[in-house]
Amino acid sequence: MGVSCAQPMSVPFRKVVVADDHMLVAQGIERLLMDCFESIVLVSSGEELLDSLRRESPDVVVSDISMPGISGIDVMRQARSEGCLTPFVFLTMHDESSMAAEAIRAGARGYILKSAAGDELVRAINGVMDGQTYVTPTLAANAIVASGRSQYVLTDKQLRILEYVARGLRSKQIAYELGVSVRTIESHKYAIMQELGVHGTLELVRKAELEGLIRH
What we know:
Elements: E1 13-19, H1 23-33, E2 37-43, H2 46-55, E3 60-63, H3 72-81, E4 88-92, H4 97-106, E5 110-113, H5 118-129, E6 134-135, H6 137-147, H7 156-166, H8 171-178, H9 182-196, H10 201-210
Parallel strand pairs: 1-2, 1-3, 3-4, 4-5, 5-6
Helix pairs in contact: 2-3, 4-6, 8-9
């Protein structure tokens, strides 16, 4: 496709794992990157991606966000918790700056839209391998500002509870949705309020929205 890697070597990088549940998309990425990597591994779900990372760390991961089972972002979080430092570049249809911000905040090194030209992906990978962070220019300004906003540490479950609270669900309803006890939900809500420094549900929702912790 006339796209080349920045380095003078014909195959500058060792291994990339490409995760996408649409095989034609994955194969297209494979063709695009075949001059850049010695080895390209294709996987079609979050679980397969995590299994691949547990076997051997590649130079970089190119992943969709929405896949069957575990999302690409949650795979990255889990991999990080297990000590895997492989950089992630997300190639996705999600064109919301809030989603890009979430990915960068969670540790992604790149965020590119599938509608972008193929050479943008190669350019992003070259930048990431050089220690940079790359976000599709149309999303970059808002995403980088938003990703730097939140200084709060909440678990995935707490973020889900926060979204339910923002939608107006009571603790009993949230407990039913998540299959846990009401006491567990109340405990998490208290911990979230402590983390954000607020004292009531309305104040909690307002603060969470201001900090970009709630996706709409």
